[in-house]
């Protein structure tokens, strides 16, 4: 269940940590989008407020559901537009509303007239969506009582009266919702409310379906798999949206757990396996430093090196001097041969781990966060050249710019060129070589000599069409820059072809007017460079 690249990272780890699999998280987002086409995804940040995770979701086009100015700032640091972030918390102070407004946030959750009045005062003209209550039945965490208006028509009418835009309705079926019925009930609620709003002349533009989508990797406290009916949940949501098709609404989902839970693994240690009245297994990680939800779900534990050995039942607990720091559900089978210091891998621990961590209860530190991917950059190997040539031809043949494998290969300086290895194939390459400033390769023939220069010429960078729009171009350039700096280059140059000069300008490259690349580079080619 844990993919190979994550297992490798866990096996190498010398100390406790949580390892997030960015590739897994991206794939999860892709799956969600395929299940709910056209629905906007806004990640509920509290489930995993880790910068690398937020950045990878933003790079893939997700927005964010933020609960206050702190989360809003983290979301905006990823570079997303403020319109891709909403203030999704119905509980907020005047000062926090004003701070969000100053940060450019224009859409706010609400559920009472007091909050609507505050939004009208502190964020004049904002868009508001009203949360409706649900009973949380069928969810492991119900989220009932604290949120939701019993009279959303009155709340949205008051918003309109105060100059706000009544923009939507929202709900949350409860976290780790394990029934399909909860979604049917939610759409019944929406179907009843929308005509009542229409009667008041309030036409909404969207419905926010909240979070609650289940993760697959937990066990129930009794040790049986949870088997969330995920496919049926998606079908029920699609069916619900079809039912409301007449209203012309946009849809937003705010998954937290669903996107990250199954793609985070904790690497901790055995503190001690003891037998007191009954056997207890104490781990270096417990409810106060990463496994807070361990009272409601059972995490799968894996003890590398102890596969196939005899087992004994033990109650599992964290390291602190607090009896709440015990994972629930009673004894679980663990290897009888465990000794202090043995590693343990805790599966599907990616949601609400870092955010529910204490500052260091009893001096036990929060887990360090690491992010890994299946994809990696590595030097170009002999066996890669067929794939590289194919990518080159696919990228340039139609523009008549392909130089062919021999010429390309002659320019692939070892220490400054690399491929993007997806774990399955070559998904891209970058070729750069030292080259005198203001000169550039002749595309019609291979390189004849090797230059020494403090200028690094980025000759070519290609990402497979199927992998475009996922931030790989940016990452490859970041890597090139790091390589150039490490090898004491002073400048990077390139020839922008195919009208891409504005793209390169956005990466800090400036043109050198008067220096015109030859015809081989196609019409309008521009020589550009930047210092490091
Ligand atoms: C926490 C939260 C979510 C995410 O819930 P999950 O069950 O983790 O998907 C979504 N929306 C709101 C408003 C939340 O508070």
UniProtKB/TrEMBL annotation:
It is an enzyme of class 4 (lyase). Its EC number is 4.1.1.17. InterPro entries: Acyl_CoA_acyltransferase, Ala_racemase/Decarboxylase_C, De-COase2_N, De-COase2_pyr-phos_BS, GNAT_dom, Orn/DAP/Arg_de-COase, Orn_de-COase, PLP-binding_barrel. It holds the Pfam family Orn_Arg_deC_N. Pathway: Amine and polyamine biosynthesis; putrescine biosynthesis via L-ornithine pathway; putrescine from L-ornithine: step 1/1. It catalyses: L-ornithine + H(+) = putrescine + CO2. The keyword Translocase does not apply. Its cofactor is pyridoxal 5'-phosphate. Keywords: Decarboxylase, Lyase, Pyridoxal phosphate. Residues 375-532 form the N-acetyltransferase domain. CDD domains: NAT_SF. PANTHER family: ARGININE/DIAMINOPIMELATE/ORNITHINE DECARBOXYLASE (PTHR11482), ORNITHINE DECARBOXYLASE 1-RELATED (PTHR11482:SF6). Belongs to the Orn/Lys/Arg decarboxylase class-II family. This is ornithine decarboxylase.
């Amino acid at each position: 269940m844990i993919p190979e690249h994550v297992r490798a990272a866990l096996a190498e780890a010398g100390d406790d940590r949580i390892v997030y699999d960015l590739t897994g998280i991206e794939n999860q987002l892709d799956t969600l989008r395929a299940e709910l086409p056209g629905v906007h995804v806004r990640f509920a940040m509290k489930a995993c407020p880790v910068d690398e995770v937020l950045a990878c979701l933003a790079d893939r086009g997700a927005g964010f559901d933020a609960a206050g100015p702190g989360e809003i700032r983290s979301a905006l640091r990823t570079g997303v537009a403020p319109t891709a972030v909403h203030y999704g918390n119905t509980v907020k102070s005047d000062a926090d509303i004003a701070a969000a407004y100053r940060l450019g946030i224009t859409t706010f959750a609400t559920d009472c007239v007091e909050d609507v009045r505050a939004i009208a005062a502190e964020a004049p003209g904002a868009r508001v969506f009203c949360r409706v209550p649900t009973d949380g039945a069928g969810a492991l965490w119900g989220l009932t009582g604290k949120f939701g208006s019993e009279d959303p028509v009155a709340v949205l009418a008051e918003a309109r009266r105060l100059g706000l835009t009544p923009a939507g309705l929202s709900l949350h079926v409860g976290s780790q919702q394990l029934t399909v019925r909860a979604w049917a009930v939610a759409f019944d609620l929406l179907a009843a409310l929308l005509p009542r709003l229409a009667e008041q002349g309030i036409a909404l533009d969207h419905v926010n379906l909240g979070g609650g989508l289940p993760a697959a990797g937990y066990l129930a406290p009794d040790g049986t798999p949870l088997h969330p009916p995920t496919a049926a949940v998606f079908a029920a949501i699609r069916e619900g949206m079809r039912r409301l098709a007449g209203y012309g609404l946009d849809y937003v989902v705010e998954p937290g757990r669903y996107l990250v839970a199954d793609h985070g693994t904790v690497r901790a240690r055995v503190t001690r396996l003891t037998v007191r009245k009954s056997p207890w297994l104490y781990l270096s990680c417990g409810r106060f430093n990463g496994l807070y939800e361990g009272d409601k779900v059972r995490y799968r534990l894996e003890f590398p090196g102890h596969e196939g050995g005899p087992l004994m039942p033990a109650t599992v607990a964290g390291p602190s001097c607090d009896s709440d720091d015990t994972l629930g559900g009673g004894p679980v089978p663990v290897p009888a041969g465990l000794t202090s210091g043995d590693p343990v891998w805790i599966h599907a621990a990616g949601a609400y781990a870092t955010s529910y961590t204490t500052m260091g209860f009893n001096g036990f530190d929060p887990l360090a966060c690491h992010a890994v991917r299946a994809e990696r950059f590595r030097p170009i190997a002999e066996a890669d050249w067929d794939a590289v040539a194919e990518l080159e031809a696919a990228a340039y043949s139609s523009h008549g710019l392909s130089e062919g494998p021999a010429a390309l290969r002659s320019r692939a300086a070892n220490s400054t060129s690399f491929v993007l290895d997806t774990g399955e194939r070559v998904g891209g390459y970058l070729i750069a070589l030292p080259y005198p400033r203001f000169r550039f390769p002749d595309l019609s023939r291979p390189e004849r000599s090797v230059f020494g220069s403090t200028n690094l010429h980025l000759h070519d960078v290609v990402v497979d069409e199927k992998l475009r729009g996922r931030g790989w171009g940016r990452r490859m350039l970041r890597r090139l820059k790091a390589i150039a700096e490490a090898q004491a280059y002073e400048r990077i140059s390139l020839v922008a072809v195919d009208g891409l000069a504005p793209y390169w300008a956005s990466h800090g490259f400036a043109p050198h007017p008067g220096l015109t690349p030859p015809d081989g580079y196609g019409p309008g080619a521009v020589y550009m460079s930047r210092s490091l």
